[in-house]
Design a protein that fits this description.
The chain is α/β, with parallel strands linked by helices. 36% of the residues lie in helices and 21% in strands. Helix 11 crosses helix 12. The longest helix is centred in the C-terminal third of the chain and has 25 residues.
């Protein structure tokens, strides 16, 4: 028998299911893409089921799935009724609705934000819950549970409704220190009974529903374990799970996370700290609204490999770009009305593309500089995962802008992190052990000396441009 661990990653563009063995080798995988902007949870489930079924169908008869773990976006809100049926489209993590509500939460729950060291913003699930209460009272009243996408997909797989994990619960206002929903939420008119029960990531939730197993032709039970946010999953997949290590997940957005032994608080609310999946230590970091989305919006349908090839002879550019393609930023600074900009005149579309790669690298460096100013030092090495980590020229730019060594694991995905979490609960004795056995670094990229000095000058200009606009 070959032990198999499955991670399912529900993203903004589609679903990726990854099945790996005990050594971290991919034995089967599948991707289901859906229409950009889709917010229908039932459509998400259809694609999750298709992706999982396709992955399982390619396993050998001697393979046995020991765990399934789901990961998805953090702060996205789904309202469901008593039967788990969605009452409306999901409110996505980057939906600007909830800005005013987040200000109310920061005033009314200042004791909680001071205790945990963050500030509410529109990307938080609790801000969206309050928005629904204030603007969609009928849906609020009919809602049995407010769920994250991970919670919803877990329910569809197992039939167990109303359970979440503490990485997803953070943005819903869960007290990670006393490990409970605070009664003060009721003073805001939020019914605590509408909030799910909270457990650690990787807790056994239930076996897959019998009808699903029959449909898949599987004759044994498949246990599902509570999942985690995609950023946390990406961090696990990167290998950064020990104190002093850090990772960048570069996908649609930019997610920076590290590992500390103590809780670090940010009074300005630029970053927050997840509780370690196993309950000890903390994962401080934050999510920016910039990332690969900028390339999708500015260079839609273009051949990125060809653009990468041409960019290699252009860098460094003279452009200073803040690559935000929607209004509002949350990390490395908080500004709901922030807007992207291009300082300088690109000589060609190729230079503009290279400038956007550099701009995202400048934001990444500013994220780490911000953490460093809060006495969180992760040294000169960063693990990196996500679709953006596949670009060699982008790795070169990022390493040189930050003057840090980048390490890319062989399998760089949040789904891989979910699979590793499942293995740590069923086959290995701990998360650290599972990571050490299943994560393999395939590439190290060092900063280019001739670029470091030039990017240092450009980075200072980047900071000046942000300061002039009042963002810093």
């Amino acid at each position: 028998m070959r032990e198999i661990f499955v991670g399912l990653d529900l993203g903004t563009q589609g679903v990726r299911t990854t099945a790996v063995d005990k050594n971290g080798n991919i034995v089967s995988s599948s991707v289901e893409n859906f229409i950009d902007g889709t917010r229908d949870p039932e459509l998400w489930w259809d694609n999750c089921k298709k992706s999982f079924s396709s992955t399982v169908s390619r396993l050998n008869s001697q393979d046995r799935i020991l765990s399934l773990v789901v990961t998805s976006t953090s702060g996205t809100l789904i309202c469901v009724d008593d039967n788990g049926n969605p009452l409306a489209d999901a409110l996505m993590y980057n939906d600007p609705r909830g800005v005013e509500e987040s200000e109310i939460l920061n005033k009314k729950l200042d004791w909680l934000t001071e205790k945990l060291g963050y500030k509410f913003n529109s990307s938080f699930g609790l801000s969206k819950v309050l928005w629904v209460k204030n603007n969609l009272p009928d849906i609020y009243e009919k809602t049995r549970y407010f769920l994250s996408p991970t919670d919803f997909i877990n329910f569809k797989f197992t039939g167990e409704l109303g359970i979440t994990d503490h990485t997803n619960a953070l943005k819903f206002g869960f007290d990670l220190i006393d490990y409970k929903w605070s009664e003060e939420l009721e003073e805001l008119g939020i019914d605590l009974l509408k909030l799910p029960g909270v457990v650690k990531p990787g807790e056994f939730l239930g076996n897959l529903r019998k009808e699903l197993l029959i449909e898949l032709g599987i004759t044994y039970d498949i246990p599902l374990f509570t999942g985690l946010t995609d950023g946390t999953g990406g961090q696990i997949a990167s290998g950064a799970v020990r104190v002093g290590e850090s990772s960048t997940t570069l996908g649609t957005t930019l997610v920076i996370k590290g590992v500390t032994s103590m809780l670090v608080k940010d009074p300005l609310g630029r970053f927050y700290s997840h509780l370690h999946p196993e309950g000890y230590g903390w994962f401080p970091g934050g999510s920016s609204n910039v990332g690969g989305e900028a390339l999708e919006k500015i260079f839609p349908g273009e051949d990125y490999r060809e653009l990468d090839s041409r960019a290699s002879s252009i860098i460094p550019t003279s452009l200073i770009i803040y690559p935000l393609v929607r209004e509002g930023e949350r990390f490395p600074f908080v500004e709901p009305k922030a807007k992207g900009f291009v300082a300088g005149e690109p000589s060609s579309r190729d230079e503009l593309y290279a400038g956007y790669l550099e701009g995202i690298a400048y934001v990444e460096r500013l994220c780490y500089d911000t953490l460093s100013k809060m006495s969180i030092d992760f040294g000169n090495m960063v693990y990196t995962v996500g679709g953006g980590s596949r670009s060699l020229i982008w790795l070169k730019i990022r390493a040189s802008v930050m003057n840090k060594v980048l390490k890319r694991p062989e399998i760089a995905s949040s789904g891989m992190g979910a699979a590793i979490l499942g293995a740590s609960r069923t086959f290995y004795s701990s998360l650290n052990t599972a990571v050490s056995r299943m994560v393999r670094i395939e590439l190290e990229v060092e900063p280019e000396r001739y670029l470091v000095l030039q990017y240092e000058s450009n980075y200072k200009r980047f900071i000046e441009e942000l300061s002039e606009r009042g963002y810093l």
